[in-house]
Design goal:
The protein is of the alpha+beta class. The protein is built from 7 helices and 13 strands. Helix 4 (154-169) packs across helix 5 (182-189), helix 4 (154-169) crosses helix 7 and helix 5 (182-189) packs across helix 6 (193-205). The longest helix is centred in the middle third of the chain and has 27 residues, at 125-151. The chain starts with a strand and ends with a helix. InterPro entries: cNMP-bd_dom, cNMP-bd_dom_sf, Env_Response_Regulators, HTH_CRP, RmlC-like_jellyroll, WH-like_DNA-bd_sf, WH_DNA-bd_sf. It comes from Flavobacterium palustre. Residues 152-222 form the HTH crp-type domain.
Length: 232
C-alpha cells in the first residue's frame, strides 16, 4: 500500500466514526497520528488471522469484507464504502483479524494504530460509549442477516443483495454505482456463479433489471422488494 496524506477536518464523510467525534477536544491530538494508504483495485490489505494493525476507515473507495467458510471457500460478509469502519471485529479481543478485506476499486484508507485506538478509548469516554453502541448495532445487523438468509431461497437472496447494493451505493442512469462480478454476487449470496447468472437472466427477461456491459440496473425495485418483504 502506498502512503498519502488526508485531512480529517476537511473530510466530507459525515458517517465516519472519527469524523463524528472531531468536536471532542482531545480528538485533535489523535487525528494527527493517523496513517493513510492507497490500495489498488483487487489489493488485499487485511488478512484473516493476521495480527490486528488498528482500525481502518475508508476515506474514499469500495471494499469487500471476506470470511473463509467451509472447504476454504471465501464468502463476502459485508461491502463497505466511504466513511465505513473496518477491522473492528477482532479489535480488543483476539487481537487478530477475524476477516479479510480487499479493494473493489482504487481506495484511500485512514488507519489508526492499536496504540492510538487504545489511548482514545481510555481517555475519551464519549467516544468509548459511542463505540460500544456501534458494536451493538453491528452485532444486531449481523444476527438479522444470518436469520434472513437462512429463510430465503436462492432467488430471494440474490434479489436481497441487489436491493442492498442499491441502498448502499445508489445508482446513476439506473445502473448500480458498484460493479460486482457474478462470482462476487455469488460469494455474497452463498450460492454459485451459475445460479446467479441464471437468476439475473430470469430477472432481466421479466423486465425487473437491465444489464449493460455486465453492470446491473434495477428497473422495478418496488416489485423486487415485494418478493422479499416477508423476510424483512
Amino acid at each position: 500500500m502506498r502512503g498519502i496524506t488526508t485531512d480529517c477536518t476537511s473530510c466530507i464523510n459525515a458517517n465516519c466514526f472519527i469524523k463524528k467525534h472531531l468536536h471532542l477536544e482531545k480528538m485533535q491530538d489523535y487525528i494527527m497520528e493517523k496513517t493513510n494508504y492507497t490500495c489498488k483495485k483487487g489489493q488485499q490489505f487485511m488478512i484473516e488471522g493476521a495480527p490486528i494493525q488498528g482500525l481502518y476507515f475508508i476515506y474514499k473507495g469500495k471494499v469487500k469484507v471476506l470470511k473463509t467458510g467451509i472447504y476454504g471457500k471465501e464468502q463476502i460478509v459485508r461491502l463497505t464504502t466511504d466513511g465505513d469502519t473496518l477491522g473492528f471485529r477482532g479489535f480488543g479481543t483476539s487481537n487478530r483479524y477475524l476477516i479479510a478485506a480487499s479493494a473493489i476499486e482504487d481506495t484511500v484508507l485512514c488507519n489508526f494504530s492499536n496504540d492510538i485506538m487504545h489511548s482514545i478509548l481510555k481517555s475519551i469516554p464519549e467516544f468509548t460509549y459511542d463505540m460500544m453502541l456501534f458494536y451493538a448495532e453491528e452485532l444486531n445487523k449481523s444476527e438479522n442477516r444470518v436469520k434472513k438468509i437462512a429463510q430465503m431461497n436462492v432467488r430471494e437472496r440474490v434479489i436481497d443483495i441487489l436491493l442492498y447494493l442499491l441502498k448502499k451505493f445508489g445508482h446513476t442512469n439506473n445502473l448500480l454505482n458498484i460493479n460486482l462480478s457474478r462470482k462476487e454476487i455469488a460469494d455474497f449470496a452463498g450460492t454459485t456463479d451459475e445460479q446467479v447468472t441464471r437468476i439475473l437472466s430470469s430477472l432481466k427477461k421479466e423486465g425487473l433489471i437491465k444489464i449493460v456491459n455486465k453492470r446491473i440496473g434495477l428497473l422495478q425495485a418496488d416489485k423486487l422488494n415485494a418478493e422479499i418483504i416477508e423476510h424483512k
